[in-house]
Amino acid sequence: MSFRQDKLTRPIYRWAKGVMPPISETEREAIDAGTVWWDGQLFTGDPDWDKLLAMPPARLSPDEQAFLDGPVGELCAMIDEWKLVSEDRDLPPEVWDFLRRNKFFGMIIPKEYGGLGFSNTAHSEVVRKVSSCSVVAGVTVMVPNSLGPGELMLHFGTQAQRDYWLPRLADGREIPCFGLTSQEAGSDAAAMLDTGMVEYGEHEGERVLGIRLNFHKRYITLGPVATVMGLAFKMFDPQNHLGKGEDLGITVALLPTATKGVRHGDRHVPLLTYFQNGPLYGDDVFIPLDWILGGPDQIGQGWTMLMTALAAGRGISLPSQSSAAAAVCARTTGAYARVRTQFNVPIGMFEGIQQPLADIAANAYLIDAARRLTVAALDEGHKPSVVSAIMKAHATYRMRESVERAMDIHGGKAIIDGPKNYLAAQYRSVPIGITVEGANILTRNLMIFGQGAIRAHPYMLKELLALSEEDEEKGLADFDKHFWAHVGHSAKNALRSFVRGWTGGLAAPAPRNAAFTSHWRQLSRYASAFALLSDLSLLTLGGALKRKEMLSARLGDILSELYLLGAVLKRFETEGRPEADKPLVEYIMAKGYNRMALAFNGVLDNLPARWAAIVTRVIAFPLGVPYHEPSDELTSE
């Protein structure tokens, strides 16, 4: 044992063990879900922008483009959204048949199982286009291809389960749903009251060892019409039939909705957005053990399954739907502002209208830029859980802003419902996107930075694992290695932040031969300041940062803006630097810098360790955090 390890590291190690809470098994599974991608670069404080620009853009195959031009276009032409809302309150039978025949429910299922085998990019583009003409149809197409039996079976199912279920899901013979949200616990799987008891019962005339289920799920999309459900429940074995103890953990099973004791068919009405959604009930439902997803070997692995699927799925479904809503708002509101006149002048000529119009255009460009970048990463095999959380929260936040701005500009035209109101459906659906797949208020306050600081930080997870090591000497050795590497990294980053901060970003790097060099340099400056502030926040607050949710949210906002603004600049490069887009990109960057300035100041003003706030200001922001709104001239342009 070295002098450093024994005399310097050991006291720090013991102090850290006292202030940092141990990682629970649930937290460990959530942290381990997915992969680290560009978020890891941002946490280094010195992201390699050339690597980002070298990443191939999202592309559709000829078959995928043909599907988008053909069946997707036909589907949109079949739907009368006003009739659906005001009379039918469901997709008409011919639309359901069309969805089945054209395998809309099997987009992610590989061709060998009868599905379309589409890329994540194609999945996203289909959801985006369908959602632009019908929110109800968009949700109906989205859900079977998102977190549900199909995707979970691809990752975790036995070969027999895949061979039987996937072809039936692909061609629409089976309609899937996934039962996670509990009556009392919401989507907090750890607090669910739905149980499965291991016991003997009768199945197909034979006495077999199985599971007795009792559950009450709610808010389950496609639940009323589903023929097969994935079900998350807590599994117990009071008599230890399986020899694994009593509490076996969260488990997922796959069962037909026609199973004895299952009830479904009742409907919820999510803000008059009439996609199929409702509760699932199960009273003394007996199923054999081989109905567990993945078989008995996957008992207790339900939380891991859910987190793994969510790590990617959150980056596709709702961001695609948000992109559609933002595009609808931009297209219709821009046109309306030209043809609607006040005092014989198009309202788009008034500065009071130009301001919200600029926000609508900026949101549409930004959401779609980030969506394309994210699905391209997914197609490369990444499963970036932190980036997916950023996309889900911030795409839906900006979608909400766009819809509100569009409603303001349209005035009375937008508040009178009817077949010619193209904004009402988008407006009604806004809170749904904000709430589902992890409510934004939770995602922003806890998930983005809370998970990112551990998962994507170069050293934090390694240090925490060392602190959780049962063998203290091994833990000390591991901690010594990673802690001093972390110290060196932080020192380099402090120096980097100082140079970039005191030169106003002029000494910060930018990618070679890229446009908007000054913006790339500013992102590099903000990235180093973010990494410095993150390390100081973690150092001074330790495990208490979990409870400082407002600080965590602001740090997450900075991380999110770095990702989103990088995506905007990459899109501009990928599309050949169109001259017409330059004012829009300038506007987006200015708004993004302001969001980061507010977040930086919010952290620095409220950080309990005042010395850490002063150090950060002196090193990274000697003249204060820059804060400049886009000019009126740029906004009007």
Overall morphology: globular
Strand content: 5-15%
> Which structural class do the helices and strands define?
alpha+beta
Average pLDDT works out at 92
Stretches where pLDDT is under 50 for at least 5 consecutive residues are: none
Main pleated-sheet profile:
7 strands, mixed
Radius of gyration over C-alpha positions, nearest whole angstrom: 26 Å
- Alpha carbon gap, first and last residue: 66 Å
CATH-assigned fold name of the domain at 457-636: Butyryl-CoA Dehydrogenase, subunit A, domain 3
* Percent range of helical residues: 55-70%
The first-level CATH class name of the domain at 457-636 = Mainly Alpha
CATH architecture of the domain at 457-636, by name, is Up-down Bundle
Number of helices: 25
Count of beta strands: 9
Descriptive account of the structure:
The protein is of the alpha+beta class. The protein is 58% helix and 10% strand. The chain contains 25 helices and nine strands. It has helices at residues 3-19, 25-32, 38-44, 49-54, 62-78, 81-88, 93-101, 120-133, 135-142, 149-156, 159-170, 302-313, 317-339, 351-379, 385-410, 412-415, 424-435, 440-455, 460-468, 472-502, 517-541, 549-574, 582-606, 610-620, 632-636, and strands at 176-179, 195-203, 206-221, 228-236, 247-256, 262-263, 277-288, 341-342, 345-346. Helix 14 (351-379) crosses helix 22 (549-574). The longest helix is centred in the last third of the chain and has 31 residues, at 472-502. The termini are far apart. The model has no long low-confidence stretch (mean pLDDT 92).
